[in-house]
């Protein structure tokens, strides 16, 4: 679990005033019950420029693990980032926390059980896990080999190969054959001639019909229809819209990526409208392990976001709020944008969701950024990119790709373009 946020519970999240390097900082306000004989892991992480957690390499410690009887304190690892899936180069094995652990010895029967975790427990295995190793990684080897097997030669070969011949083995012939070959059989066909005939062998016959068939109908058939729309069947059909059938065509949700264990401060993605739609809101998954107040911003721009990740002037701020989030695996609704976005059918609109408290998204294994991820017939959602640390940055280290938005997109199926200014339309939306 070194590289994923899944499996961890946030037990302390608060700003503190740090002391100098030689003076310990006290973190008060959390309790974790550890039953006798069991092991508990902790991950201490500090955000802030030039602020680091101090630890000691294992080579500098004379004795490990540390124990004073009731509690044993084992070695751990150092980390250069919070959670970056797959990047094991940022882990340093054999590290000991430079500090102390405060605890009370209690009768666990008198202690309330801990609160439920944010995620289900792992599926039990058929056998116990292997005993832990002394360190996550072995030390690097000195070199692939002590020396190269043989020094390179001065030339590819001692003697060059024969030079190519000056001409092909046989010159080209004047014609495939001097005389056409005999026909395979004397009958029914004649031997082929040297030249094509002057006319077709036989004129076309009138068979199988004596003349052309009559035209299917005298006038053209009526233009195709979409079938009979049924308002109230929870399907926004092509002939329906938010005015003619609000029950089917308003507050539609395109659900995307119910799973996903990665996250960052922001995600940019593109939406393509198959028909006229009005994007009204988003539901998203916040990375916090507990319900908390977070600042959220939503930006939008016509067309693709590609090339505009660091250009704040290209984006329009359409929503800004402080909201109370749900836990990590429960979607949090924005309850409507400050400014809804009309997207004409056949066009693309980009969105950027940002919060300093981190957003959960999916890291796909079979999609690249810009490829179609979800489609409900009215709206298409494409794989985008995650944005880390800096809100608007063109630096590649702040852009992770591909990433798929985890949550849902709320929209109304519009009727813009029908020559009528409907109730739901304004001069800015249509």
Entry keywords:
18 strands; 430 residues; mainly beta; 5-stranded antiparallel β-sheet; extended; 1 helix; 8-stranded antiparallel β-sheet
Largest sheet: 8 strands, antiparallel
Total strands: the figure is 18
Question: What's the tally of helices?
Answer: 1
**What is the beta-strand fraction?**
25-35%
Shape: extended
- From the N-terminal CA to the C-terminal CA, the straight-line distance is 50 Å
Account of the protein in words:
- By secondary structure, this protein is an all-beta fold.
- Helices cover 1% and strands 25% of the residues.
- It has one helix and 18 strands.
- It has one helix spanning 246-249; strands at residues 55-57, 66-67, 72-73, 76-79, 91-97, 252-256, 262-273, 277-284, 293-302, 316-324, 332-333, 341-343, 348-362, 372-375, 379-382, 384-387, 399-405, 407-413.
- The strands form four sheets. Strands 7, 9, 10, 13, 14, 15, 16 and 17 form an eight-stranded antiparallel sheet that branches. Strands 6, 8, 11, 12 and 18 form a five-stranded antiparallel sheet that branches.
- Strand 14 and strand 15 (379-382) form a beta hairpin.
- The chain is extended.
- The model has no long low-confidence stretch (mean pLDDT 79).
Q: Would you spell out the secondary-structure blueprint of this structure?
A:
Elements: E1 55-57, E2 66-67, E3 72-73, E4 76-79, E5 91-97, H1 246-249, E6 252-256, E7 262-273, E8 277-284, E9 293-302, E10 316-324, E11 332-333, E12 341-343, E13 348-362, E14 372-375, E15 379-382, E16 384-387, E17 399-405, E18 407-413
Compose a concise summary of this entry.
By secondary structure, the protein is mainly beta. It is 1% helix and 25% strand. The chain is extended.
